[in-house]
Design brief:
single chain; 5-stranded mixed beta sheet; elongated; alpha/beta; 18 strands; Heat Shock Protein 90; Beta-Lactamase
Length: 528
């Protein structure tokens, strides 16, 4: 029995032998000693050669050889055991534990078993005096033993959760490194092309387009990471209002059309007339774009993607179906877990970082809706259905007429402790015809602003010495009411935007800078 491979296998799976002291097990041995009115209580686990003491109350925690262990006898017989008086027990009287200055006279143990019945160890009490337990003592000890077994399973579950988290973390970091390196290679190549003396105009245009495309891709990766982190922390606030379904789909398709066209997918779109839902105009399209990107990635060249939306007066169901690889039944829940992309491969021909669907699912819940998936299995495509609350149609206000752009050069102060970032932004503004000064430190920026008040201040937030929030308060004192302060920052959430505006900035532009937005701000300075 002691050397039974199956029993030892269950014991090894628990990873419980020779492990550090655990307060939960110690609490159970203390409880056992008090309830059973015993001076000593133990939780022991028995392998093929030793009895490992997991917890001891009233005695020193140590490991025994089987020849020295009464618990090994219980495991050997695979049965609970009671020794009322070891001195009167013919086979036990000579046992090492029952001899010496601290000899065990009374011993009671129940066998701790795995869920499938294998003996793992014992919960026992010991005394140096004989005892006559009452009829309920063994039953009480069994109940306490059930708590030990329950704790064992919880420990095993926790160990498995930690192991899975570590594996997912390592896998995710490897995939993230790959995803970030992928666009860096063509960007570096394009830079080398631009450095060539004999580069042609067409080659220069190609290189610029390539750099822009891959920088945008890297920005999307960062946005996904940030959005997933913020959603998991509950840091995104949604502004739910009536929005046309067609408008949401237009935004999502605009973001996903590059991959859909690249893979030459056929796409159909069927939406009931005048369909409206309660949605956040910024976050809701992210749900749909993730569904479309997922369908495009996992559908082979020239496949079919169908969008269908219908409502019942209470809820609107927007489905995205494809003829792609499909989903195995056992993987349906996993795909909505962070980093839970199934069947990843290092070639990354179809995958991503495993963030899109978990993000979409959480955002759907925050909208008061849901996101579900159906698939007939591998090779049979899949259908994702987003359920949102239906809304009554509303009329939108007419779009205001665009302001005339400012043609007079502006005096701009750029502040960033990263010299390359500051110089690049300054050069862009100079090439647009503006007068630009650059400060790499907050104290230098204050001095420059004191010397001459600019029209516009473009400032980073994460500055050393004085951060951007504190700096803008000091600059406001030195500037005029006409000076526009713009936060140029890597902190890009809605909460970060509100914090920047509350601190004194007029506008908030996340990095990498959207230059079309920046140009609009500069050209319409009077609007701020």
């Amino acid at each position: 029995m002691l050397s039974d491979p199956a029993r030892l296998g269950r014991l090894a799976d628990l990873v419980i032998l020779d492990t550090p002291v655990d307060a939960h097990f110690d609490a159970l041995t203390q409880l056992t000693a008090r309830v059973m009115r015993a001076p000593r209580a133990f939780i022991n686990f028995v392998d093929e050669a030793r009895t490992w003491c997991k917890s001891a109350w009233g005695a020193v925690r140590r490991t025994y050889q089987h020849a020295e262990s009464l618990c090994a006898l219980a495991i050997q017989d695979s049965d609970d055991i009671v020794i009322y008086d070891a001195t009167r027990h013919e086979l036990i009287a000579s046992h090492p534990e029952c001899n010496g200055d601290d000899a065990v006279v009374f011993y009671m143990a129940i066998v701790l078993r795995s869920p499938d019945g294998f003996a793992l160890g014992t919960l026992c009490i010991k005394d140096v005096a004989t005892r006559i337990p009452d009829s309920h003592d063994m039953e009480v000890l069994r109940l306490l033993g059930e708590q030990v077994t329950h704790l064992l399973l919880k420990v095993k579950e926790k160990q498995q959760t930690i192991a899975n988290a570590q594996r997912n973390r390592d896998q995710f970091l490897a995939m993230l490194a790959h995803e970030l390196r992928a666009p860096m290679s063509p960007i570096l190549t394009a830079v080398q092309v631009l450095n060539k003396f004999q580069v042609s105009p067409d080659q220069r245009d190609w290189a610029k387009q390539l750099i822009g495309r891959h920088v945008r891709h890297m920005g999307q990766l960062v946005d996904h990471l940030l959005s997933t982190s913020l959603v998991s922390l509950g840091a995104i606030e949604l502004n739910l209002e009536p929005v046309r379904v067609d408008s949401l789909l237009d935004q999502a398709l605009e973001m996903a059309e590059g991959l859909i066209e690249q893979k030459q997918h056929r796409l159909t779109r069927t939406v009931i007339d005048d369909a409206w839902v309660m949605a956040d105009r910024v976050q809701c399209p992210l749900i749909l774009v993730n569904l479309l990107m997922n369908a495009a990635k996992f559908t082979s060249q020239g496949g079919q993607i169908d969008i269908h939306a219908e409502g019942d007066g209470t809820f609107m169901r927007i489905s995205v179906s494809d003829t792609g690889v499909g989903i195995a039944p056992e993987d349906r829940d996993e795909i909505f877990q962070v980093f839970g992309q199934t069947h990843r491969t290092l070639d990354r021909t179809t995958g991503g970082m495993g963030l899109g669907l978990p993000l979409a699912s959480r955002l759907a819940q925050w909208h008061g809706g849901s996101l579900d998936v159906q698939s007939d299995g591998i090779g049979h495509g899949s259908e994702f259905t987003l359920v949102l609350k239906q809304a009554a149609p509303t009329r939108t206000a007419p779009t205001p007429t665009a302001r005339t752009t400012v043609t007079v050069p502006l005096d701009i102060l750029v502040i960033d402790d990263n010299a390359d970032t500051a110089d690049a932004l300054a050069m862009y503004c100079q090439m647009s015809g503006h007068i630009v000064r650059t400060a790499y430190r907050s104290v230098d920026a204050l001095q420059m602003l004191s010397d001459r008040v600019p029209n516009v201040v473009l400032s980073d937030i994460g500055l050393p010495e004085i951060d951007g929030y504190a700096l803008v308060k000091q600059m406001r004192v030195l500037a005029t009411e006409q000076t526009m302060f713009v936060a140029i920052t890597g902190y890009g959430s809605d909460r970060d935007r509100k914090t920047a505006l509350d601190a004194g900035f007029d506008e908030h532009c996340p990095k990498p800078v959207d230059f079309a937005k920046l140009d609009h701000l500069l050209n319409n300075l009077d609007d701020h």
